[in-house]
Amino acid sequence: MSLINRFPDDFIWGTATSAYQIEGGANQGGRGRSIWDAFCDIPGNVVNGDSGEQACDHFHRFAEDVKLMANMGVGAYRFSISWPRLLPNGTRDNVNQAGIDFYNRLIDCCLSHGIQPWVTLYHWDLPDDLQTSDGGWMGEKTSGLFADYAQLCFEQYGDRVKHWITINEAWVVSVLGHGQGVFAPGHSSNSEPYQVAHNLLLAHGKAVKIYREQFQSTQGGVIGITNNCDWREPLTNDPQDHAAAQRALEFFLGWFADPIYLGDYPQAMRDKVADRLPEMTPEHKALIQGSSDFFGLNHYTTMLASESDGDVKDQNVYGNGGLSEDQGIDLTVDKDWEKTDMQWAVVPWGCRKLLEWIAARYDNPALYITENGCAYDDELVDGSVNDQRRIDYYASYLEECANAIDNGVNLKGYFAWSLLDNFEWAQGYQKRFGLHHVDFKTFRRTPKNSALWFSKMLKRNLD
Ligand code: GAL
């Protein structure tokens, strides 16, 4: 059976981006500074001293980008709203009308091409004023200000936006931003991540409460959160390695999904980091439990987990290890696995296993893969980009998504990361995830072969 026919007719196909990675126009249209502008200003934080100041210039070229999606035949576009573009200082005391207008134009443009906007409210670009004056996500105050900002978005856009994602990858904000310090705001600590994670969950819960109480019945949309997780495969059949892999998943995804679906942090975390894990009070639990209409998942790769021999090997493995010393786990990869240019292993069956793990643990929720994709150092040659490895990656991961659906997983949509080559955070512009090549001097976009492949698949023209 052809790949597309293995998915239900109402399956959502989309592409994803985020504001700081593509918009540019950082100093235009009244936008305030974010913690990523501040982080990029510090030499050594980002490869080549890159920043998102211009990025893909999507701020000016969004109509062209929506056309690229329309040409691909996707039905949904997941983008994020830049909080400091709407509220330059982070609070509703100062609303930037030019920012409001920009997203109105973008949303209307999507809809006029038959593309449903899926809006992420927080993809890491916290208004810098909230960091410098209120301690950012370390303070509970920020969670209330996030809910105020979310309310503004529901008021302005909720008549047309029917899919909301509160927070993108709270794990990254907590671990990479406040644990390893490799992402904004660049803090290194073994306790901050747990406090930040708690405040992010509260921010999510407060925004969802407002949406449900004041908007959902009239606007008729849904709201959820997107978490990221790699698969953790036991290194050996030893029960200790099985337990280690399970614990690793609980520390990665259970950290955020257990409070939402089960009402508290995973037992493994309560046992191992009791000294630093904030208490889930009855008030917090009331806000957080049951606060997601769907399960958003970003997934890229797999690692092998084993019981730690006490000598932590993967500390500060960019993006993968997390706070491994707290978990008692060693992580490795099979040397035979192919790796992308992010050094992330290509393991399609890990995607299926993770989907099945989520379905089993959280009672088979409606699931959307809100990001999946790969970085390869593509070259534009004679007007085209032959990115066969990316096509193979997508085809193999989608086969496993279809297998998961066959096995009963309630997977309802898939968003490819990313529509465009973009600013890949601390890696700058050197890591390319896009379905479209972007020349960062001229901003010219060229569909890669992977975009053409997607388009053929979606239009049912794939052999
Ligand atoms: C995710 C993130 C995206 C993108 C992607 C590839 O963690 O949400 O913004 O950078 O990884 O690294």
From TrEMBL:
<feature type="binding site">
    <location>
        <position position="417"/>
    </location>
    <ligand>
        <name>substrate</name>
    </ligand>
</feature>
<feature type="binding site">
    <location>
        <position position="123"/>
    </location>
    <ligand>
        <name>substrate</name>
    </ligand>
</feature>
<feature type="binding site">
    <location>
        <position position="168"/>
    </location>
    <ligand>
        <name>substrate</name>
    </ligand>
</feature>
<feature type="binding site">
    <location>
        <position position="300"/>
    </location>
    <ligand>
        <name>substrate</name>
    </ligand>
</feature>
<dbReference type="InterPro" id="IPR001360">
    <property type="entry name" value="Glyco_hydro_1"/>
</dbReference>
<feature type="active site" description="Proton donor">
    <location>
        <position position="169"/>
    </location>
</feature>
<dbReference type="InterPro" id="IPR033132">
    <property type="entry name" value="GH_1_N_CS"/>
</dbReference>
<dbReference type="GO" id="GO:0030245">
    <property type="term" value="P:cellulose catabolic process"/>
</dbReference>
<feature type="binding site">
    <location>
        <begin position="424"/>
        <end position="425"/>
    </location>
    <ligand>
        <name>substrate</name>
    </ligand>
</feature>
<feature type="binding site">
    <location>
        <position position="21"/>
    </location>
    <ligand>
        <name>substrate</name>
    </ligand>
</feature>
<keyword id="KW-0136">Cellulose degradation</keyword>
<dbReference type="Pfam" id="PF00232">
    <property type="entry name" value="Glyco_hydro_1"/>
</dbReference>
<dbReference type="GO" id="GO:0008422">
    <property type="term" value="F:beta-glucosidase activity"/>
</dbReference>
<comment type="similarity">
    <text>Belongs to the glycosyl hydrolase 1 family.</text>
</comment>
<dbReference type="InterPro" id="IPR017736">
    <property type="entry name" value="Glyco_hydro_1_beta-glucosidase"/>
</dbReference>
<dbReference type="InterPro" id="IPR017853">
    <property type="entry name" value="GH"/>
</dbReference>
<protein>
    <recommendedName>
        <fullName>Beta-glucosidase</fullName>
        <ecNumber>3.2.1.21</ecNumber>
    </recommendedName>
</protein>
<feature type="active site" description="Nucleophile">
    <location>
        <position position="371"/>
    </location>
</feature>
<keyword id="KW-0119">Carbohydrate metabolism</keyword>
<keyword id="KW-0624">Polysaccharide degradation</keyword>
<keyword id="KW-0326">Glycosidase</keyword>
<keyword id="KW-0378">Hydrolase</keyword>
